[in-house]
């Protein structure tokens, strides 16, 4: 029982720390790229921003509109945050520093990540608001469309590694001596990152929120702590999906030329560094590109990403048999 509580505490702490790190990186990236003086200078050079955000939303009143479906409305944020937090359980910081090294780790990660779709759709449907409903329907369509290339991109890695364990995938990359992103899975890596960005509903894939069109989309009627849960969950998901991408495609906790005996020391540093680098790329994309139209968003998934991921699976399978 004690071990379970320790693991649960570790997962919760990792999720919160990841959200804080990426929140700071997002606001300071915006301040740097768009010359916004607030987050860059105010409050310990902007590093107090996440705490200020949390305190602001915690002290706000949790308003529940009269016509909402109250049980569904209240539980919707829980689905989203559970989906984000549970993913941390299978991300390995080293061969031994992992909460659960599941044989079907990849399957678990992909399955649990789809739980957020339920939260977003129920949030939009239960809000009794036409903008929220439209945002929820957009989110459901977007998440379903981009889950397919996300899953198909990972299939190529599973074929190449011959295992679905995340630790096993990293060990196979160590055996090969080169990360999968540079040994035949570069297309899958790019597809995964694009699809993951769409799963997080970040710019340029933020159609379900679309402030200029839908106020705040499926979150329009939420306030106080419930809105904060949605807000934090975005950065939790951003951190953990970048960590999973680093594990699957960039060697995870491994660093070449360092003794394997020290992996418990440098492994977490290696994985977090790779995760932050990928996160910085997502931040740069957010503040550099405009929002897609809905037809452009769906066309990218169905006409380009899914065929490209299927082709990648075919080529990987052929090379696996031939070589």
Describe the structure.
The protein has helices spanning 2-34, 37-41, 49-58, 70-86, 105-113, 115-126, 130-161, 166-176, 186-199, 211-214, 224-249, 263-286, 294-322. It has 323 residues and is mostly helical. It has one domain (2-322). The protein is globular. The chain starts with a helix and ends with a helix. The mean pLDDT is 84.
What would the keywords be for this entry?
13 helices; mainly alpha; 0% strand; 323 residues; globular
Instruction: List segments where confidence is low: pLDDT < 50 over at least 5 consecutive residues.
Output: none
Number of helices: 13
The overall average pLDDT, rounded, is 84
The percentage helix is: 55-70%
| Terminal CA distance | 47 Å
Beta strand %: under 5%
Structural class: mainly alpha
Shape: globular
Largest sheet descriptor: none
Total domains, how many? 1
Q: Radius of gyration from the CA trace? A: 20 Å
Write the H/E string, N to C. Answer: HHHHHHHHHHHHH
